[in-house]
Design brief:
By secondary structure, the chain is of the alpha+beta class. The chain is built from 13 helices and 25 strands. The strands form 6 sheets. Strands 5, 6, 7, 8, 9, 10, 11, 14 and 19 form a 9-stranded antiparallel β-sheet that branches. Strands 21-22-23-25-24 form a 5-stranded mixed β-sheet, sandwiched between helices. A 4-stranded mixed β-sheet has the order 1-2-3-20. A hairpin with a 2-residue loop joins strand 9 and strand 10. The chain binds flavin mononucleotide (FMN) and manganese (II) ion.
C-alpha cells in the first residue's frame, strides 16, 4: 500500500523510476498531444508531462495510468493476491485465533477506521480562487483528441454531486466538452449514478450543485471510474485502496466536499431540464460517439493550485490508457464478483472488447443450466449489465489465453443449442443496438454439456502428452539439433 499524497508526488516517483518523460517541446493541445500520447501508449512508453503547451500556462499530464505496472504503482497495490487478502479480511472478517492472532489483527481493524474520508480545513486545491467573471476555462490546456471531435473535452474529471434526498455523495468520471469560458457539457450517461442523482433534482425542479476535480492522488482519481454500486462512497473506496483517508475540503461556492489535494476544482451547477448538443467525440469504442443532448455545467468558480498540473487522457482504438484502468478494475473487482456470483472462478475482459462487448468467464460446472445462470447473474449485476457477449468456459481454462478459449469455445458449442439471447439495457456508447441503450445480449455456453442438459453423447479427452515421454524427450532434446528450436522443449 502506498498512499500518494497527490498527483505530483506520484509523477515525481515515476520520474525517479524513469517512467515519466517531461516534454519541453512546444505542442498544441489540439490533436498534437493526443497523437503523441497515442503513439506512446502503443509503444509501451512512459507517462508524459507536457510543460510547454500552446495557449496555456499549465502543464498537461497524460498516460499516467497507461501501463499495467504504472497503474498498480498508482494504486499502491503490490500484487492482486495481496489485494484479495485485504479485501477478504474486510468482506469476511474471521475472529482472530489466539493472542498472537488477535494482536496481528489489530492493525487491520485500525486500518479500516482510518480510511473513512476526513474533512480538513484547507488544502492546496484552493491556493487560487477565481469567481464569476474571472472564471475562464479557455485558460486551461484542455485538449482536442481527434479530428472529428466537436471541440475540446475535459476527459478525466472527478464529478462530485450529492443526492437530493439522501445527501450521499457520488463521484464519477464523466467527460465535459468545453462550450465557452464558463460552461461545459455534463456527459453522465443515463445509467450512471450522476445522472440518477440529477433526475432527483429534476423531479424536485431544483438546481443541482456540481464540483469537478481535475488531478488528485491516483487512488482518488481511480475511484471515480470504478464501477461501485450506487450508494457506495467513492472517497471511502479510495481511502481503502490507498490505506489512508482521502482529505476533503469544503468547496468555496457550493455545498460539496472536494479532494483537498486536487490540482484544479471547477464549481458550479446544472439546471433541471437544460440540455445542449454534446459531441461527436472519438470514443473508447474506436469510433466516434454521435452528438446528442446532455445537461449543461455552469462553472461559477475555479479553485486551483498556484501552478496546477492539468491531468487528462485520450480514448480511441485500444490499447489506450483506459484499457489499463479497465484491467485494474477487472482484477480489483474479481473477488467481489466471486462473492456475488460464487460460480465464477475467473473472468477476463479482453481490451478489444472495450469492457462491455466481451467477457470470458470460467466456472466450476456442477449442475445443468449453470452457465446460463451465470450469464443472467452477470447481466443482473451493476455495470456488468452492459456486457454484450459472454463466453462461459469450464475452469481451469485460462480466460486470459484467448487462443485456448477460442479453441475450446468453438469446439464445445452447438450454436443453436448453446446461444442464450436476452434483451436488456445496452451501453449508451453502443452504436449498433436497434435503439439507443436497449437491445440484445448473447451468452455462449461453451462448457461441457451434461446428461441433465440432454447431452448423452460421449465427450472426448483433451490431447496431452504423458509426463514420462516428455521427460525422456527433455533429456535427449539438445542432442537432436532441431534448428531454431533449441529451447523449445517445453
Ligand atoms: C477516461 C474515462 C472517461 C469516461 N467518460 C465517461 C463519460 O463521459 N460518461 C459516462 O457516463 N461514463 C464515463 N466513463 C465511465 C464512468 O466513469 C464509470 O462508468 C463510473 O463507474 C461511473 O461512476 P458512477 O457509477 O458513480 O456513475 C469514463 C471512464 C473513463 C475511464
Ligand atoms: Mn457511484
Amino acid at each position: 500500500m502506498t498512499a500518494w499524497r497527490d498527483l505530483r508526488a506520484f509523477l515525481d516517483d515515476l520520474e525517479r523510476e524513469g517512467d515519466l518523460l517531461v516534454v519541453r517541446e512546444r505542442v498544441s493541445p489540439v490533436l498534437e498531444i493526443a497523437e503523441i500520447a497515442d503513439r506512446c501508449v502503443k509503444a509501451g512508453g512512459p507517462a508524459l508531462l507536457f510543460e510547454n503547451v500552446e495557449g496555456s500556462d499549465f502543464p498537461v499530464a497524460i498516460n499516467v495510468f497507461a501501463s499495467r505496472e504504472r497503474t498498480r504503482r498508482a494504486l499502491g497495490i503490490s500484487s492482486w493476491e495481496e489485494w484479495e487478502e485485504r479485501l477478504d479480511f474486510f468482506l469476511d472478517p474471521k475472529p482472530p485465533e489466539g493472542l498472537l492472532g488477535k494482536l496481528k489483527a489489530l492493525p487491520k481493524v485500525a486500518d479500516l477506521a482510518s480510511v473513512f474520508p476526513k474533512t480538513v480545513s484547507n488544502g492546496p486545491c484552493r491556493e487560487v480562487v477565481e469567481r464569476g467573471p474571472d472564471v475562464d476555462l479557455t485558460k486551461l490546456p484542455v485538449i482536442q483528441c481527434w479530428p472529428g471531435d466537436a471541440g475540446r473535452f475535459i476527459t478525466m474529471p472527478l464529478v462530485i454531486t450529492k443526492d437530493a434526498e439522501s445527501g450521499k455523495t457520488n463521484v464519477g468520471m464523466y467527460r465535459m466538452q468545453v462550450f465557452d469560458r464558463s460552461t461545459t457539457a455534463m456527459h453522465w450517461q443515463k445509467h450512471k449514478d450522476g445522472a440518477g442523482q440529477a433526475r432527483g433534482y429534476e423531479r424536485a425542479g431544483r438546481r443541482m450543485e456540481v464540483a469537478a476535480a481535475i488531478g488528485g492522488d491516483p487512488a482518488t482519481v481511480f475511484s471515480a471510474l470504478a464501477p461501485l454500486p450506487p450508494g457506495i462512497s467513492e472517497f471511502l473506496f479510495a481511502g481503502f485502496l490507498r490505506g489512508e483517508a482521502v482529505p476533503l475540503v469544503r468547496a468555496q461556492t457550493v455545498d460539496l466536499l472536494v479532494p483537498a489535494q486536487a490540482e484544479i476544482v471547477l464549481e458550479g451547477y446544472v439546471d433541471p431540464g437544460e440540455r445542449r448538443r454534446e459531441g461527436p467525440f472519438g470514443d473508447h469504442t474506436g469510433f466516434y460517439s454521435l452528438d446528442d443532448d446532455f445537461p449543461v455545467f455552469h462553472v461559477t468558480a475555479v479553485t486551483r493550485r498556484k501552478s496546477p498540473i492539468y491531468l487528462t487522457t485520450i480514448v480511441g482504438k485500444p490499447p489506450m490508457e483506459d484499457g489499463f484502468l479497465g484491467e485494474a478494475v477487472e482484477r480489483l473487482f474479481l473477488p467481489l464478483v466471486r462473492k456475488t456470483i460464487p460460480d465464477v472462478v475467473d473472468m477476463h475482459l479482453p481490451v478489444e472488447g472495450i469492457f462491455h462487448n466481451l467477457m470470458i468467464v470460467s466456472i466450476d460446472k456442477r449442475y445443468p443450466g449453470q452457465a446460463r445462470k451465470v450469464m443472467h447473474a452477470i447481466w443482473g449485476t451493476g455495470q456488468m449489465m452492459f456486457t454484450k457477449v459472454i463466453v462461459v468456459v469450464d475452469a481451469p481454462t485460462d480466460v486470459r489465453d484467448i487462443r485456448d478459449v477460442t479453441l475450446k469455445a468453438l469446439n464445445h458449442i452447438d450454436p443453436e443449442r448453446d446461444f442464450e439471447f436476452a434483451m436488456g439495457p445496452i451501453d449508451e456508447l453502443d452504436h449498433a443496438s436497434r435503439q439507443p441503450c436497449y437491445g440484445s445480449h448473447v451468452g455462449i455456453d461453451a462448457t461441457r454439456k451434461l446428461p441433465g442438459e440432454g447431452f448423452t453423447r460421449r465427450w472426448p479427452d483433451e490431447i496431452r502428452m504423458d509426463e514420462a515421454t516428455k521427460k525422456k524427450i527433455d533429456e535427449i532434446w539438445h542432442r537432436l539439433g532441431i534448428p531454431g528450436a533449441a529451447e523449445r522443449g517445453r
